[in-house]
Design goal:
By secondary structure, the protein is α+β, with helices and mostly antiparallel strands. The chain is built from 16 helices and 35 strands. Among the domains are: 111 residues, 2-Layer Sandwich (Nucleotidyltransferase, domain 5), CATH 3.30.420.40; 138 residues, Dna Topoisomerase Vi A Subunit, Chain: A, domain 2; 110 residues, Dna Ligase, domain 1 (2-Layer Sandwich); 63 residues, no CATH class. Strands 13, 14, 15, 20, 23, 24, 31, 34 and 35 form a 9-stranded mixed beta sheet that branches. A 6-stranded mixed beta sheet has the order 3-2-1-4-11-12, sandwiched between helices. The radius of gyration is 26 Å and the shape is globular.
């Protein structure tokens, strides 16, 4: 290495198929995609880092910050590859995690399949203790009974343990004491307390969150230790921050203690990227479309802010059906995620219908065209057969694709059963996956009270720019933005995320009878905790704070979030809180209930660094585009034949240049397809802006 730049930052996103690495140094970016190594994920990370550092001629010692997001925790839950986990709970509540909700997500399905708890019944144990809803001790913790459980837990070869007592959110003393006793008796067992991971009401969600954290904690802790050691061996002595599901960054220590906060960290980075692009281009209604090798993620961004939620479901037994998965009570950016990626497997079902996903060929063996032993037909194989992917330039030319293998797989899985050519089979696969994503976007928008057609689309991820045009046609969207470095978009989003941490506490209180002393003391403790985490991740940087309350009419089952003032609450604030709640309720339901009592169920506080101001690029003057780099044969389903379309190399296109569809724009990490009836231009910041040219 011949030179050393001043300072640099690295961002790493581990996906199911590819691991993306982005280096930002001296105002420039270097990126790479390497195949994920599922058996040892850190190996792909370290290989990718070495590659970009060498390509940019940057010394490892010059890197001042490493940002990381991963779906490893999510995959461990879905694939049931976590630790052998036990649960210790209050006597009489052993089966809370199995009973779940009273309601059924599909009330007419007599063969309904509920999600399987992470902790089987023989590993669920109880101990005598009881605290009431106000935190008063009704029955002391039976410490002798707790100690008597230790030999049983050892005999059961338990690797991780969740402790979740009834109403521990109101008084965590029993849980904390149980944790101390069990840690002394079982020093090799990882212990999670529900009052630390999810100090909120609703025992089902609190216990599933605690057990999920315990389930993934040993695996994630070991992985993060190995990664940290590997980074130091490469010569990177800088801090490592982790992307959380809520769209902020947190410290490595916090991530190792509460890895459940990382379940949607990769997709959250993509939502942050879309938010920042929306701010740059002053777009107040945006749908972000992130399609990688395994899944597709869709998120609505209104008024430059992605939708937020306090609950997320993993391992859904029924696609699109809320209530069919394992609920996790964590801060999360609200989005819909479906098994629709480049590696999604296509087949013909018993009714002779083409179905795609949700299972994926992943990185190993990958699509048939990879030549790594995969035989299943995938979306990537379909895109290759249709001519949308240049086999010689895929993943920067590091992975040669076999078009013949792709067509053979498509013929075997789809073409032969339906008596179709490989190309028509590929077209059918593409249409099915595009309609699946369009339907998910429609449903998500409607559930949030919006019309997808009123939004611009921001497309990123390895596969999204290829499918964004067809998605826009199906949804009636008129403008698509493909950001610079779209193929590694989530990793780029990490570089734009603030360091933040959210703390939530349930203190149920009637609005007309608030205990301000208790509430302010709790908020101060929450502030101290959140500021401590943020200051550790961003020392010396100004920290801003946001407070909110989850409120409802007494007797209702769900809450509305209302912003709180930044100071300690007093009696003078009660009227303003009521008005704020009425306004929020009316905005959702067009009415209020003037005589109903209002209660505050949960209090939340977020501390964060301020996001950077967006760099607003002006509209560049028009320029003539260069001649196409090549011509590609693209399949046209209407004529059942190939037609030649222009292929442009994205680095050759400068701001102000424009071109008409149909056309392909290729780059190292992805390719963008400009459909017929659309035109593309390069904006001032280098983004591709694809717009419908017909009325």
């Amino acid at each position: 290495m011949t030179s050393q730049r001043d300072s640099a930052r690295l961002a790493i996103d581990i996906g199911g198929t590819f691991t993306d690495v982005v280096l930002e140094a001296a105002g420039e970016r270097r990126t790479t995609k390497v195949l994920t190594t599922p058996a040892a994920p850190e190996r792909a990370v370290l290989d990718g880092i070495s590659e970009v550092l060498a390509a940019a001629d940057v010394a490892a010692a010059a890197v001042e910050l490493v940002l990381h997001g991963t779906t490893l925790a999510t995959n461990a839950i879905i694939e049931r590859k976590g630790a052998r986990t036990a649960l210790v709970t209050t006597e009489g509540f052993r089966d809370v995690v199995a009973i779940g909700y009273e309601s059924r997500y599909d009330q007419y399905d007599v063969m309904i399949q509920k999600v399987t708890p992470l902790v089987p019944r023989h590993l669920r144990h109880t101990v005598a203790e009881r605290v009431d809803v106000a935190g008063r001790v009704i029955r002391d913790l039976d410490e002798d009974g707790l100690r008597a459980l230790a030999p049983t837990l050892r005999e059961q070869n338990v690797e991780s343990l969740a402790v979740g007592f009834l109403h521990a959110y109101a008084n965590p003393d029993h849980e904390q004491r149980a944790g101390e006793i069990l840690a002394e008796l079982l020093p090799d067992v990882s212990i999670t307390l529900s009052s630390e991971v999810c100090p909120e009401v609703r025992e089902y969600e609190r216990l599933t969150t605690a057990t999920a954290n315990a389930y993934v904690r040993p695996m994630m802790d070991a992985y993060l230790k190995r990664l940290d050691a590997g980074l130091r061996q490469l010569g990177l002595g800088c801090p490592l921050l982790m992307m959380t599901s809520g769209g902020g960054l947190t410290t490595l220590q916090t991530a190792r203690r509460q890895p459940i906060r990382l379940v949607e960290s990769g997709p959250a980075g993509g939502a942050i990227l879309a938010r920042e692009i929306a701010r740059e281009l002053d777009l107040d209604k945006v749908i972000s479309f992130d399609m990688g090798g395994t899944t597709a993620k869709i998120c609505l961004i209104e008024d430059f802010a992605p939708q937020k939620a306090r609950e997320f479901e993993v391992d859904r037994q029924a696609r699109f059906m809320k209530g069919s998965g394992l609920p996790l009570r964590i801060p999360v950016i609200e989005m819909v995620e479906i098994g629709a990626g480049g590696g999604s497997i296509a087949r013909v079902d018993a009714l002779n219908r083409i179905t795609v996903g949700p299972d994926s060929a992943g990185a190993d063996p990958g699509p048939a065209a990879y030549g790594h032993g995969g035989e299943a037909a995938t979306v990537t194989d379909a895109d290759i057969a249709l001519g949308r992917i240049d086999p010689g330039r895929f993943a920067g030319g590091k992975l040669a694709l076999d078009t013949d293998r792709a067509k053979q797989a498509l013929t075997a899985a789809v073409g032969a059963p339906l008596d179709l050519s490989a190309e028509l089979a590929a077209f059918g696969v593409g249409e099915m996956i595009d309609e699946t994503m369009a339907n998910a976007a429609r449903v998500h928008a409607v559930e949030l009270g919006h019309n997808a057609a009123d939004h611009d689309q921001i497309a990123f991820g390895g596969a999204a720019p290829l499918h964004a045009g067809r998605l826009a046609q199906k949804l009636g969207i008129r403008r698509i933005i493909v950001p610079t470095h779209a193929g590694v978009g989530s990793a780029v989003g990490f570089l734009r995320a603030p360091v933040s941490y959210e703390v939530v506490r349930s203190l149920p209180s009637s609005l007309r009878d608030l205990d301000f002393t208790r509430i302010n003391a709790a908020m101060q403790a929450m502030s101290d905790e959140a500021h401590g985490v943020v200051a550790a991740g961003a020392p010396g940087v100004p920290i801003k704070e946001h407070r909110s309350a989850f409120m409802r009419y007494r007797g209702q089952g769900h809450e509305i979030v209302v912003d709180l003032p930044g100071h300690d609450l007093t009696a003078a604030d009660a009227a303003a809180l009521k008005q704020a709640y009425d306004d929020a309720y009316a905005a959702l339901y067009k009415r209020t209930l003037p005589n109903a009592e209002i209660e505050v169920l949960t209090w939340a506080l977020t501390a964060s660094t301020a996001p950077p101001e967006p760099a607003r690029a002006g509209t560049p003057p028009p320029r003539e585009a260069p001649p196409p780099s090549a011509q590609r044969d693209l399949f046209d389903a209407e004529t059942d034949s190939f037609r030649q379309v222009a292929l442009y190399w994205r680095p050759d296109l400068a701001p102000g240049m424009s071109l008409a569809g149909p056309a392909l724009i290729a780059e190292d990490e992805t390719s963008s397809f400009v459909p017929e009836g659309f035109s593309a231009r390069i904006g001032g910041a280098g983004h591709i802006i694809i717009e419908r040219s017909d009325p």
